[in-house]
Each structure stands twice: as structure tokens, then as C-alpha cells.
Design brief:
CATH superfamily of the largest domain: P-loop containing nucleotide triphosphate hydrolases
CATH class of the largest domain: Alpha Beta
Helix content: 25-40%
Structural class: alpha/beta
Largest sheet: 7 strands, parallel
Order of helices and strands: HEHEHEEHEHEEHHHEHEHEE
CATH topology of the largest domain: Rossmann fold
Strand content: 15-25%
Oligomer: single chain
Number of strands: 11
Distance between the termini: 37 Å
Strand order of the largest sheet: 3-4-2-5-6-1-7
Number of domains: 2
Shape: globular
CATH architecture of the largest domain: 3-Layer(aba) Sandwich
Number of helices: 10
Length: about 325
């Protein structure tokens, strides 16, 4: 079994130390520090207590932990509950899609007996104060105050961003953050690369773009920034600063992403576009090609924001 880094072991120790006090915990660790390694080892520790449910929101966040878990403990029966994939109630570990289990009046959740589960792990836990997530926590008896009968079940959430922009607070579903590892410490200790930022000035103005409490108004922002001059500057910056390196480009909407993909390709750069409408199998193949360095640029809309497991990466916004 691969040795844990000191901060990863400290996170595990903090979970176990605080368990007598609270069974609703949060662990905060920065992106790239190995949150999934920590909860995979937690699963190995607690498998003898009862069944384990791992919850995530996207397919990449379900399949990657399954692969890591089998490396850490090949004896586990791990099954996925998502779309056409269906887990048997006999599985040791159920890795489930929140949209699949959590939609109102879901029939698929009813095959799992809450009394058989002793550990529930939430990946990207900052989402868990939403209604869909609360439906799952309520069913398994670990929803704080509202349905809180399953006292023998540990709920622990992992996130890099415990604060939400929509003012929905994690204290609605958890009692306390039991461990926090700061991104500055991770960089100083050599576990994460230091951030190097490049500023590129454009002539595009967003002064007339409206804003909500969370972000810019998307369609207004897209209308403002999706223009040929600005897009060409993005491609030119890549060619001058990052040529040959692997880059993720975050676009405002699907049309913006497709326009950028086309422009990269026109300039001879191997680029692909991924958005929420990209078929799952095709998305999986695209990410595999990218990991194997057959593609230089991924232009995406809201897909590459969580669960990226790629070692060499330059981010371009």
C-alpha cells in the first residue's frame, strides 16, 4: 500500500479523533493534494464496519476513485450507480451519482438499506447543501437536524472550496471542519507547484456586462468577449508563451468554446472542445487522449472544473 503524505495521514487521524464528538465532518484540502487518496484509505480502514457510500456529481468523479480504490484494496467489491450502471445492494462500496440517487422520489435509492451503511463520503462537498444532496442524506438518516437517526454512520465531506457563492452554508449538513490543509502550505512544502500568472490585456470591455450575486450574466458576458480579435489573442498567447504544452481553456458558453477550438485548429494547434452535451464515451476518450499527450488544448465549458487527474497541466483562462 502506497505511503500517505504527512498531511494526508493527519487528515485521516483528525477524522478518527473527532468521530466520538461528531459524525458529520468536513476535510478541506486544495485541488491536486490528493483528497481522493485520503478517502480511499478511509474506506479501507472502515470497510469492516459496514457498507460504504461514496457520492459525487460527475462521471469522472466516480470512475477515478473506483480505480484508485482497487489499487489500494483489491479485495473490495466496488460498484457504480449512475445512469445505465446499476450497483447491487450487496456491494461493499457503492459509488453513486448524486443526480441519479438524489432526484426527488427516486426509486433507485430504495434498494439500499440505510441500516447497512456505516460510512458516507461526499466528494466536492461544497455542493451538499443543495436539495438533491439533502434528499440522499435524509434517506440515509444523516441529514443534520431534519433526519438524524443514523448515529452510527459517519458522514465526511471533502472539498477544496468550503465557501459557496450562493450563500448556502455547509453547516446545514455538517458540524465542523475537522482538518484543513492550506494551498500555501502545500506549495511551500513542495507538494503543489507554485502558481505563475500571466496577464494579457485586450481591447474588449465588459463594463456593460451585468452581474448576479454569484457571477457575471453568462449570455451578456459571452456576447461581449466572444469576438475574433480577443479569441485570436488567446491563441497567439498560447503559441508565444505555452507552445507545445498542455492547456485547459475555460470558455463562457458552448459557442465560445467551439469558436476557440476552431481557431486553435486553424492555427495548427491540436485542440478539442468538451461541454455538457459531449457524449460520455466520447468525453472519456478525449480525456484519455489528452492524458496520453495526443492533444495539446482542451477548450471546455464547466467540465474541467472538478475531478481533473492529470499530472502535467498549464491552465489558461
Amino acid at each position: 500500500m502506497k505511503n500517505l503524505r504527512p498531511y494526508q495521514q493527519a487528515a485521516l487521524d483528525a477524522i478518527n479523533k473527532n468521530l466520538p464528538k461528531t459524525n458529520k465532518q468536513v476535510v478541506v484540502m486544495p485541488t491536486g493534494s490528493g483528497k481522493s487518496i485520503v478517502f480511499c484509505h478511509l474506506i479501507k480502514q472502515r470497510k469492516h464496519l459496514g457498507k460504504i457510500l461514496l457520492l459525487a456529481h460527475r462521471s469522472e468523479l466516480l470512475t477515478q476513485p473506483a480505480e484508485k480504490l482497487l489499487e489500494i484494496d483489491p479485495t473490495l467489491d466496488i460498484q457504480i450507480e449512475m445512469a445505465e450502471q446499476k450497483a447491487e445492494p450487496t456491494a461493499d462500496v457503492v459509488i453513486a451519482s448524486v443526480p441519479t440517487l438524489g432526484r426527488t422520489n427516486s426509486e433507485r435509492i430504495k434498494k439500499f438499506d440505510p441500516n447497512h451503511f456505516r460510512t458516507i463520503i461526499g466528494d466536492e462537498f461544497h455542493h451538499f447543501s443543495s436539495t438533491t444532496n439533502k434528499n440522499i442524506l435524509r434517506y440515509f438518516g444523516v441529514l443534520k437536524k431534519e433526519s438524524d437517526w443514523n448515529k452510527d454512520c459517519l458522514l465526511v465531506g471533502f472539498t477544496a472550496t468550503p465557501r459557496r457563492a450562493d450563500n448556502q452554508h455547509l453547516n446545514e449538513v455538517a458540524d465542523e471542519i475537522v482538518y484543513r490543509y492550506d494551498i500555501k502550505d502545500a506549495m511551500q512544502e513542495g507538494y503543489l507547484a507554485r502558481v505563475r500568472a500571466y496577464r494579457v490585456d485586450t481591447t474588449t470591455s465588459i463594463d456593460n456586462v451585468g452581474a448576479t450575486s454569484e457571477d457575471f450574466v453568462q449570455h451578456e458576458l459571452a456576447d461581449a468577449i466572444n469576438n475574433r480579435e480577443r479569441n485570436e489573442l488567446i491563441v497567439k498567447t498560447y503559441q508565444e508563451q505555452f507552445s507545445g504544452k498542455q492547456v485547459v481553456v475555460f470558455a463562457v458558453d458552448v459557442q465560445h468554446a467551439k469558436d476557440l477550438e476552431k481557431l486553435f485548429q486553424e492555427k495548427g494547434v491540436k485542440a478539442i472542445e468538451i461541454d455538457g452535451t459531449t457524449p460520455k464515451d466520447l468525453r472519456k476518450q478525449m480525456l484519455r487522449d489528452y492524458s496520453e499527450k495526443n492533444t495539446n488544448v482542451i477548450v471546455n465549458v464547466g467540465v474541467m472544473t472538478e475531478g481533473i487527474d492529470i499530472q502535467q497541466l498549464t491552465l489558461c483562462f
